[in-house]
Amino acid sequence: MEQDSNDRKNGPDLVASLIRAAGRRIEPPADAYQQVLTAATAAFREKSAQRRGRMWVLIAAAASVAAVALLVVQWNGTSTESQVATIARVIGSVEIETDGEWEPMTGARGSLGTGARLRTLAGGNVALDLDGGASLRLAAATEVQMDGPRQILLRSGRLYLDNRASVGTGYRIETPAGTARDVGTQFELRVADGILRLRVREGRVEIDRAGQLLSGSAGEQLEFDALGGVTRSMIAPTDAEWQWTEAVASAPDIEGQPATVLLRWVARETGRQLRYEPAAVETRAAAVILHGNIQHLTPMAALEVMLATTDLEYALSGDTMVIRTRTEP
Amino acid sequence: MADLVHLDRATARRILGGDEAAFRELFDRFFPRLYRFALARLNRDQELARDVVQQTFCNAIERLDSYRGEAALYTWFCQICRNVIADHYRRRQRGSERVVLLEDQPNVRAILEALAAPTDDEPDTGVWRQQVHRVVEATLDALPGRYGEVLEWKYLDGESVNEIARRLELGPKAAESLLTRARVAFRAAISELAGASDELTGALGRSPG
User: Which of A18, A31, A174, A224 to mutate to test the interface with B (most CBs of B within 10 A)?
Assistant: First the structure.
């Protein structure tokens, strides 16, 4: 073994003797390493997301002449330059942050500005109509911040985005565990305990995790663990797991509208293809004018109620909703 | 030390800027050291040490904005770890069972961040070896950069300067210089500790068995 000049000058080598007498340092168990890394990575990503959120606020503050309007939700139903969404539907306990305090959200049709934060409590759901044309829905126990017209920060919990308009640059959803960009789609994103889960119902979604790009297509579920591992599995567009999104769906105003408006909405909300049998039934459906209000009905309940007043009926066949003219017994 | 703190401030800034590679590098550098740090203070309870270190990382990341570089980043993490351990004992109301370490004497603590407590339930040779092990382990953990690893490669694995140079992708002269600096730092830390604690002087001054 080599010995440097210091060793020789100093006689017996204290450094070498002590290190050899002590032996190797204790190595932590691999499972402890993995567990702590997972938790610490989640904390790091959450911290990064919080700082990005604050940065957006600062940028907004610098750009705004009316500083007092910043971070304050435009809760009076009027539109402002910074408006990014409108509350479409509230179920159960939903809270909104105003001046640093969480306050109950009492009803729909208010508007949200850049920087607005809202959260759902146990059993609560909320649907927002985003100014870009998409529908955003929050499951229970979820917190988001509206970072911009097409940018949302999902702090925790689960959201669903339906970008039915499929126009523009798509939406960007930041989470502590990665960033999602929709490419004209319906998808669900959940972040919990450092694990990011993406479920794509329609179209395609790109996920950016620290520069690593991955995409999920319709029918796919991707689960990203904190260490960068990805697990892919399948989830049908009609799977029962999507039902929470239907429960909070914001129904169209069907008064005076043709039945085709209702049918297209129900098909999209339930993840089904729409087929008229025979094709001429579509012309018939377009001629049926509906009257009434389905605002508080789920898509399938609205379908049942409204078709009962027409000569149309439906049947579910796999992932397809078939519309026919009624056959009387 | 000033250079080290400067580097630590830069690391903290990178992490706060969202640089995940910087975070991971810091984690890999600190995790084993903090784990040993906690283990020595928690009656060798591995599960508890894991949980304490996990909480330490989470707290440290949350408060990283407040790191001003007055001390080395590892020292700052150790202080957070101490607080987590203190919280643990407060919650359990087990103050009487708390492990009191040599390093927690103010004079020793000022020199190094970690030293383990002696035990009195082993034969003399075992006690001596255990004390030396803990002192050396804590000293190696407290050394900056990769000094601890370099010394282990040299004296436990018997690697030559050239082999260490290849590992670190350095020239032989740079590796030799690094090894010399590591030896000097280790010797200085041990000497200061021995001067600061009679108990430690006794442990180091005895020969085994």
Answer: A18
